[in-house]
Structure formats: structure tokens, C-alpha cells
Amino acid sequence: MSGAAALVPQVSDPNYAVIFDLDGTLVDTSKSFDETIKQMVQRYSGEALSDQEIASLRQEGGYNDDWVTTAELLRRRGFVEPFSKIVQEATELYLQLAPSNEFALFDDQLLSAIAERHPLFIVTGRTRSEYDPIWGERLDPLFKRVYCLHDVPGKAPKPSPDYLLHLIADFNLENGVYVGNAVDDMWAARDANLTRIGIASTLPAKALSEAGAQIVLQSVNELRQVFSL
């Protein structure tokens, strides 16, 4: 872990952003977002969907949005539905599942310890309506700002670096690290010239490394060793 520690500051630096993805990084969504994808695909295609099929598609990159993932999995089965219909139905189903099926993967004390050294942010691909009722109350106090999809008009979602670059400019920061569990997270961070930490919670470590991760951890809580806390 000593080599990993060399990639991030080991002392307080208020101009260095520590930015997190949310789903699969800070929060387990296997029984909420992933379950919604499975139910939607079975509803329209009549065929069961495995976890491996979801993971394989995400590993291709470009499928950070779960409703885009749903539409593509259906398309590959020969079923094409209006995207607006998928979004509406999937969001309603997700909001039914999420309150009792999502749980934190992070240690609050660890986040607080990092926040004493660096400003903390979240850049997530979920919308504000999917974030606020489920995690807003708990996470908002721990982070300087949470950027949800569509929060910044005209900015493209991951794998584009738009949101990360906007954040850095918004807070006049000099550098930072992005912590995520997806290929799209690593691509976005690379193109924003940020240090890249992959969390191998949903994809193999090799896939994250090949996507550009400079450090790969099994859990977000291993950041304690990376930051020498």
C-alpha cells in the first residue's frame, strides 16, 4: 500500500479534491438498481437476466446510466422500447426497492477523517430524485457538494469528464482523485487528469486497471491505508 500512498497527499491540502462515485462505491445497489434492471428486462423480454450479463455490459464502458443499460440489454434481446417509458417505469420501481434494499459500504468515521484534510465531493450518475430521498439526509452533511445527473445543464454524464472538470473549476481546486467502481469512472477521471482509484466491488480489478485505475482496492474503506489515516 506504500506505493498507493505516494499517489495521494499524505498531509492536509484544501486544494486537493477527494471525489467519490456513489453507486457500487459508497453504496451497495445490487438489490436496488441492479434488481430494477433485472425486473425490467424480464418484464419486457420474458427472459431472466444474470448479474454477469449486467457486469459484462458495464465492463464495455459507456453504460454508467442504469436505464441506458436496461435499454441496451433489451435491445440485445431484440426488444426496443421508448427510452422515456423505460426511464419512467424503472425509476418508479427503483424508488420502491431502494429504501429497504440499499446499504452503506463506507465507514462514516473514515470519510470524516479524510474531510479533515481535503474537501469531499460526490459525482454520481443517479438523478437528484433518485438521490435525495434515499441518501440525501445521511450523505449531504459529509460532503462539500453532491453532483447528481442533470445538476449542471449542458454537461455530459460519465464517461465524459465534464462534471469532474466543472467541480474542479467550481471550487477553484488544483488537483484531486476520483474513487469509483466502473470503467466509466476511470475514463472520466483520466480525461479530467485526476488520480484514479478503482473499487473492485462490481467489476474485476483487472478491468478497472485496464480502464486506467492507478490504485485498485477491494473496499472503499481501504482508503484508510492509502491516506495513512
Protein described:
It is a single chain. The protein has 229 residues and is an alpha/beta fold. It has two domains: 2-28 and 103-226, Rossmann fold (3-Layer(aba) Sandwich), CATH 3.40.50.1000; 33-101, no CATH class. 45% of the residues lie in helices and 16% in strands. It has helices at 2-5, 33-45, 51-60, 66-75, 83-101, 108-115, 128-139, 162-170, 183-191, 205-210, 223-226, and strands spanning 16-20, 27-28, 103-104, 120-127, 145-149, 175-180, 195-199, 215-217. Strands 5-4-1-6-7-8 form a six-stranded parallel sheet, sandwiched between helices. It has a two-stranded antiparallel ribbon with strand order 2-3. α7 links the parallel β4 and β5. The longest helix is centred in the middle third of the chain and has 19 residues, at 83-101.
Strand order of the largest sheet: 5-4-1-6-7-8
End-to-end gap: 12 Å
Please summarize the sheet with the most strands: 6 strands, parallel
By CATH, the architecture of the largest domain is named 3-Layer(aba) Sandwich
Under CATH, the topology of the largest domain can be stated as: Rossmann fold
Keywords:
alpha/beta; 2 domains; two-stranded antiparallel ribbon; 11 helices; single chain; globular; 8 strands; Rossmann fold; six-stranded parallel sheet; 229 residues
Summarize the structure.
The protein is of the alpha/beta class and 229 residues long. Helix content is 45%, strand content 16%.
Element layout with pairings:
Blueprint: H1 2-5, E1 16-20, E2 27-28, H2 33-45, H3 51-60, H4 66-75, H5 83-101, E3 103-104, H6 108-115, E4 120-127, H7 128-139, E5 145-149, H8 162-170, E6 175-180, H9 183-191, E7 195-199, H10 205-210, E8 215-217, H11 223-226
Parallel strand pairs: 1-4, 1-6, 4-5, 6-7, 7-8
Antiparallel strand pairs: 2-3
Helix pairs in contact: 2-4, 2-5, 4-5
